[in-house]
Amino acid sequence: MLSVKKIALIGVVVVPSLCSEGVYAQVPEEIIVTGTRIKQSNLLASSPVTSLTNEDIATRGITRVEDLINELPQVFAGQGSNISNGATGIATVDLRGLGASRTLVLIDGRRMASGTINQIAPDLNQIPAALVKNIDVLTGSVGAVYGSDALAGVVNFQMERDFEGLRLDAQIGVYQHSNGNEAIQTALRSSENLANSLKGNQLDGATKDFTLIYGHNFRNGNGNITAYLGYRDAKEILQSSRDYSGCPIRGGGIAGGQIFCGGSLTNATGTFSINTDGRLFTIDPTTGNTFQQVSLTDQAGLPSINFYNFNSATHIQRPDKRYTIGLFAHYDLGYRDEVYSNLMYATDNSISQTAPSGNFFSSNLVSCDNPFLSNQQRDIICTSKGLGPNDTANLSIGRRNIEGEPRQTTLQHKSYRIVAGLRGDFRLLEGLEYDISAQFSSAKLDQEFNNEVSIRNIQNALLVTTDANGIPICDSVVNGTDLACVPINYFQIGGVTQSALDYISTRGQQNGRYKQTIMLATISGSLENYGIVVPGASSSAKFVLGGEYRKDDYFFNPDAALISGDIAGKGMAEVGFSGVFDSLETFGELQIPLLENRAYAKNLTFKGAYRYADNSLAGGNSTYSVGGIWQINDIIRLRGNYQRALRVANAIELFQSKSLTLFNSSAGDPCAGSSPTATLSQCANSGVTFAQYGNIAINPTGQFNAIVGGSTNLNPEKSDTFTIGGIVQGMGNFDGFSASIDYFDIAVNDFIDTAQPIQSINECVFNADPFFCDLIKRDPNSGSLWQSENGFVEAKKINTGSLFTTGIDINARYEKELPSGLGGLSVSLTGTYLINRITQSIPNGPKKNCVGLYGDLCGSPSQRWRHIASINWQTDHNFDAHINWRHFADVKADIGLNVQTGSFDENLGAADYFDLAFTYRGLSDATIRVGVNNIFDKEPPLSTSIRTSAGNGNTYPQVYDALGRFLFARITLDY
């Protein structure tokens, strides 16, 4: 008979696989379901739950569980393998777009600790996909049950704990794409970036995944031990392997406007900025050692300067190797007492590669008697400024270290998780049960920054004179401060020598660790034995009372090069930090049947939960929720829930060291250029002087400096979550049909985030808001926010205003047996309609609704509608077929991008991806699966205004399929 485990009784389902139990069969024994610690004999939940099975993982060819979860419409893209610039090396999940730190990840109902010290969020890389039995995604009110940091909800991985036998699960997969985007290939061709690899078929990014599982029952089935060993190897994919990511595309600002390859002013021959007047120069390719003045664009709006293509060496899929090992064990001691434990260990090694490092417009001093300067260069830099041979001149230099290798950040994480506990009957009181456990988790980060250049050594190498023999020599050698210095010649094409390259080259290292200890104890049970039953109900109330102690211990250690800020590619100095904080929490849940088996009330149940947490950093705070389920009859069930929760700041938000990063502003600096869009008085609000006005260089890349970091002056976030919905199932002739609809409303006040830098600029310049003006620090010499590290916008953690999101989740499923032994068919749909996603950067400040938008202010796309739909055919001949349809609605550019109607960036078009998989079980002890995801090799939506962090390769690769078709084959052998 056709069925799906955990079908509409939990209400929200996206389970394409066909299983063997009845659709509406009652669970025969009491279990604990996601969203509550109360054991129950049905799967009632007052908040919506989406459930995925191991069959979903297998038929989708998933080896990274975050890839499957990111497809769900309730999930916004987090950290993953497609992020290179800004990668933390872990994989995260972000429910409702509230941030990964507000999504609690559980393994069998117990929280996961942070996966790294540089982002406080669990790392899904620690979870072996082949051991996952079910994944429950609950986006409701569960903070009182699991902890107040579950503002957005929880993702609960239920692992296989009673396996018996030996299983080998092996999969190979590869990406395939046929390059054929003529518009972008034209841009690549005109900029001489059209490599042969971009002209046709690409086959790359091979992934291998192997998992060995062994399980054994012992002592007449009273105990079980399940052990696993896993290995995964994913190969790199460079942006230069896809034409649509082959270069940073720019242009297309008007309807039909030409797009071209942009890039960075930190280029191969150097861009030289005279800080006092804003002029830009480059090396004249004709002479090879003289300056020629350049503007950023010609009269046609096309680039008149040689931009560096930083896409060519950058990953769009990071290479990654992962090893996992672990075991789950439990043993029945008799008298309904059981001891249980599990151990999970994972080590993950990934490399994030970006374009070569360089001198990123540092404010350098150059000797006016530098022998590498031609007479014309010396006149522009020194003589025309009244400087003589014994003087030094200020010069900002953007020079790419093309003589070196691309920058590589090596990220290694080692993590373990140990749980041990005892549960059973609480014999002192009949009908009660206890559960006592201890949990220890640790995640260690080792990070290296390779192929970097030293800011200090570059400066030394630019202060050059000649010795008695007329040979160039560093001033630091003459005065004895740095005898190893080798002069560097940035003023002539091909002038950098190997010895100079060796001198300026450097590397950095940092490491950190996050440890968590949890002690948890609960007492639960029913009041049935004590005769406490509400009139009108036949079942008694159930409850859970518990206490939890949690301790977090962390440290972060950068090396001397990072502490000093000497690494050019890292920006500013980083500072180590360490600390310990703990939380003592008590909690309780109550479930009271109010009416049962009455007219229009087959079941009416009240649910409530409360948690009090005493945090050593933030003091005491309370979280509570109330809700209920009203089952009108066998067909219709209604549910609702309300939660009030407080979340205290985590270690990163409190103590993260100050560092320099980049932010996007496609509209640019309104005070830059010879004819700024803002007036002198408006620009003066942000610190522009009279002399600087009209002389601040325009930034063609749209990337400006920002200072990020934590703050110890953060207040707890306050959130209110409200959900209400209904379920229908088994309607007459459509007894195989079930559907649910749920409305969600989540408001978070005192939201811990950063003031958006582009908003800070606009609010200061055009509205003279003193809060935002205090965040803008212009370079004292040039007035720039990008030409040197002395110009930036502060974007440290603060309590911003609020984040408010509302929407509707829709889920439907229909399954039917086919005639004449053709098997069975099931069709399912899970979709989310986003009504509001409103952000407020400061209390009582302006609000921005980002639904249907993407860009500088709104970030990653917030599609108004997303869905995933499946058709599954299970035959009677050991053969199954699966079709999947993933849909993303189109999004428009937000006002921060300043685009025109009909321009290239006005819309990221709707994206539809279709996946096909087949399963064959006809072989003895073997199951074979083959499939293709993104069958039609659809390109991702592209924009010229996507640059860093979540954006990569002119798109959002963690949101859309950015690599083409994925072909996979998987075999499961059972012995």
Protein model, in words:
Helices cover 8% and strands 46% of the residues. The chain is built from 13 helices and 51 strands. Strand 29 and strand 30 (601-615) form a beta hairpin. It is globular, with a radius of gyration of 30 Å.
- Give the averaged pLDDT, no decimals: 87
Instruction: Identify the overall geometry.
Output: globular
Please summarize the sheet with the most strands: 22 strands, antiparallel, barrel
The Rg value, from CA coordinates, equals 30 Å
Low-confidence stretches: 1-29
Total beta-strand segments? 51
Number of helices: 13
What percent of residues adopt helix (DSSP H or I)?
A: under 10%
> What percent of residues are in strands?
over 45%
Distance between the termini: 27 Å
Summing up helix and strand content along with how strands pair, one would put the structural category as mainly beta
Q: Could you give the topology of this structure?
A:
Blueprint: E1 11-13, E2 49-53, H1 54-59, H2 65-69, E3 75-76, E4 94-95, E5 103-107, E6 110-111, E7 132-138, H3 143-146, E8 153-159, E9 165-178, H4 182-190, E10 201-218, E11 223-234, E12 237-238, E13 249-251, E14 259-261, E15 271-273, E16 280-283, E17 291-294, E18 315-317, E19 320-334, E20 337-356, E21 358-367, H5 375-381, E22 392-400, E23 406-425, E24 432-453, H6 455-462, E25 464-466, E26 472-474, H7 475-478, H8 498-504, E27 505-526, E28 542-558, H9 560-563, E29 577-598, E30 601-615, E31 619-631, E32 636-647, H10 651-655, E33 659-664, H11 680-684, E34 703-708, E35 717-731, E36 734-749, E37 752-753, H12 757-767, H13 770-773, E38 776-777, E39 792-794, E40 798-799, E41 802-817, E42 824-840, E43 847-849, E44 853-854, E45 865-874, E46 879-888, E47 891-893, E48 907-908, E49 911-923, E50 926-933, E51 965-974
